[in-house]
């Protein structure tokens, strides 16, 4: 689609507009060509042309014009102004345009840096990707000057004589560069490098300093600096640049811009790598694996010795074992909820208000009594077999975290304002994590010095951090309550990936399965509206999803229940 320059703007890139790429009509496509011509005319002057203007410009008979316009309107490609009876491009084109390039994150993340570069320099900034051996422009922020660079979006340029192309080439392997430069290099100006060995030597310099310069190599009178955007593996996925006339972008200024561009691409790369370290293809959709529906599922635990997932319904109050022969035991005489649970070699220990219960799979029980106000809202066993609990004091609204022994809870190591609902401990025992959904906050703590700090705050739109677990890379996974998702955080507490769920209220998480690559998720249905339950019928069930990121085995507590 043709792009027209605003009145009074002298663009430097007329040789690189879509109009310069020859349009040839194929036999049998006359109607299509007419439709494309109409889109071009409407796009050039949106909201200014009526049917008479279009008929005059295209030379189409009125009947043909109306039929094609009606078809374009029906598909959302053209819309009319009812008052003025003029035409504009339809909103469906926006939807299609968003799918032009698969890496939509690249465009959105780079936009802020492109705008900053434009504002900082007054010159036009660009984003491009390599496509079929050429650079294709995806984004542009026009400079402030009337005499400026304004290459059209979607246009392709060679890689050997553009700053973006050379920046990307410098980060490719020798074999890849050789393949891309296997054909004779076209000369566009006297400064175009067409000698491959000379270009390869320049690529070494570009790689070392982090940016490339197009010194009138594709268009006389235009100088451009560009830098490549790299993914987590160090491979180029795109490039940004700033271009303008040589009288404003001097060689010295181009070099200064190069360093700014290199810094900008590092920020873009960091943001992209933060949001896409785990891709959707790495994780399968979550599905319900049990028919049992809990009121409030919690405390998912993988018991490696028996190959079973143990989980509880806090309000049931019921304990479930899920394996080849699922078992559910309801504590019918218990007059209070089960708060949380941990594994021992004897069975599963359940915390309730004022005490604990050892429950074996055969249904036998033993009870332990504490102070009536005792409420262990979260529990976790570390790699040494020690049991850690978060005891909640509702009156003071404080959670005290410390070790739990046969004598009961010990002296707290940390105190956190609010109710802690989940704990997670790194494999080396150096980092303890605690979630406080009421504050949308996750804390990280150190046993060595007793210090604690905020690790991550989830935006309210994401949901509240309810359940926690760690994978084999010590990355924290978070069940986002009321957020319909599980979130994986990086080492800085930033989002790496969000996994959508078919339920709104995930409550606890546990890695399990033979290779620990199955993530088990408990969920709740208590408190959900009828409409929500209608759209989330799997609520309350145990869910599972497969991930290429493995977890760690749940430690079994070295805890002997007293006689």
Automatic annotation (TrEMBL):
One of its GO terms (molecular function) is DNA-binding transcription factor activity. PROSITE patterns: HTH_ICLR, ICLR_ED. Residues 92-274 form the IclR-ED domain. Residues 1-21 are annotated as: Disordered. Keywords: DNA-binding, Transcription, Transcription regulation. The keyword Transcription regulation applies. InterPro entries: 6-blade_b-propeller_TolB-like (IPR011042), GAF-like_dom_sf (IPR029016), HTH_MetabolicPath_Reg (IPR050707), SGL (IPR013658), SMP-30 (IPR005511), Tscrpt_reg_IclR_C (IPR014757), Tscrpt_reg_IclR_N (IPR005471), WH-like_DNA-bd_sf (IPR036388). It holds the Pfam family SGL. SMART domains: HTH_ICLR. Residues 29-91 form the HTH iclR-type domain. The keyword Transcription applies. Substrate binds at residues 377, 395. GO terms for biological process: negative regulation of DNA-templated transcription. This is Helix-turn-helix domain-containing protein. It comes from Devosia ginsengisoli.
């Amino acid at each position: 689609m043709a792009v027209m320059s605003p009145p009074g703007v002298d663009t430097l890139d007329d040789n690189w507009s879509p109009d310069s790429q020859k349009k040839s009509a194929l036999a049998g496509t006359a109607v299509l060509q007419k439709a494309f011509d109409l889109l071009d005319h409407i796009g050039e002057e949106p909201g200014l042309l009526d049917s008479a203007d279009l008929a005059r410009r295209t030379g189409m008979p009125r009947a043909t014009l109306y039929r094609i316009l009606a078809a374009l309107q029906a598909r959302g490609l053209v819309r009319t102004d009812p008052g003025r009876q003029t035409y504009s491009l339809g909103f469906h084109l926006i939807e299609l345009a968003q799918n032009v390039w698969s890496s939509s994150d690249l465009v959105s993340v780079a936009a802020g840096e492109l705008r900053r570069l434009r504002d900082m320099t007054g010159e036009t900034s660009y984003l491009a990707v390599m496509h079929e051996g050429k650079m294709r422009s995806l984004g542009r922020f026009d400079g402030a000057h009337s005499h400026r660079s304004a290459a059209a979006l979607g246009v392709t340029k060679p890689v050997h004589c553009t700053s973006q192309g050379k920046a990307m080439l410098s980060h490719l392997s020798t074999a890849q560069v050789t393949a891309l430069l296997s054909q004779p290099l076209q000369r566009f100006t006297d400064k175009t490098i067409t000698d491959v060995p000379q270009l390869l030597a320049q690529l070494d310099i570009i790689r070392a300093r982090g940016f490339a310069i197009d010194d009138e190599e594709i268009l006389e009178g235009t100088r451009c600096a560009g830098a490549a955007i790299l993914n987590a593996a160090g491979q180029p996925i795109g490039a940004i640049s700033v271009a303008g006339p040589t009288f404003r972008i001097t060689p010295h200024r181009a070099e200064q811009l190069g360093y700014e561009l290199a810094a900008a691409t590092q920020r873009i790369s960091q943001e992209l790598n933060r949001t896409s370290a785990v891709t959707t293809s790495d994780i399968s959709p979550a599905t319900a694996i049990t028919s049992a529906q809990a009121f409030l599922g919690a405390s998912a635990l993988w018991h490696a010795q028996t190959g079973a997932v143990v989980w509880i319904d806090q309000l049931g109050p019921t304990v479930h074992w899920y394996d080849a022969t699922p078992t559910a035991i309801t504590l019918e005489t218990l007059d209070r909820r089960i708060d949380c649970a941990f594994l021992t070699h004897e069975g599963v220990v359940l915390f309730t208000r004022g005490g604990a219960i050892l429950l074996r799979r055969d249904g036998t029980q033993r009870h332990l009594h504490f102070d009536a106000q005792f409420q262990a809202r979260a529990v976790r066993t570390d790699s040494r077999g020690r049991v850690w609990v978060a005891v909640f004091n509702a009156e003071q609204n404080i959670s005290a975290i410390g070790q739990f022994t046969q004598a009961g809870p010990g002296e707290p190591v940390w105190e956190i304002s609010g109710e802690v609902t989940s704990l997670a401990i790194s494999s080396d025992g150096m980092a303890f994590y605690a979630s406080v959904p009421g504050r949308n906050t996750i804390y990280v703590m150190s046993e060595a010095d007793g210090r604690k700090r905020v690790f991550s705050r989830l935006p309210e739109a994401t949901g509240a951090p309810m359940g926690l677990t760690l994978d084999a890379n010590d990355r924290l996974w978070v069940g986002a309550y009321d957020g319909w998702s599980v979130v994986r955080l990086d080492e800085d507490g930033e989002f790496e990936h969000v996994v959508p769920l078919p339920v709104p209220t995930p409550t606890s998480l546990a890695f399990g399965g033979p290779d620990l690559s199955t993530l088990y998720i408990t969920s709740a249905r208590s408190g959900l509206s009828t409409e929500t339950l209608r759209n989330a019928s799997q609520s309350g069930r145990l869910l599972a999803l497969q991930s290429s990121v493995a977890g760690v085995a749940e430690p079994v507590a070295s805890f002997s229940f007293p006689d």
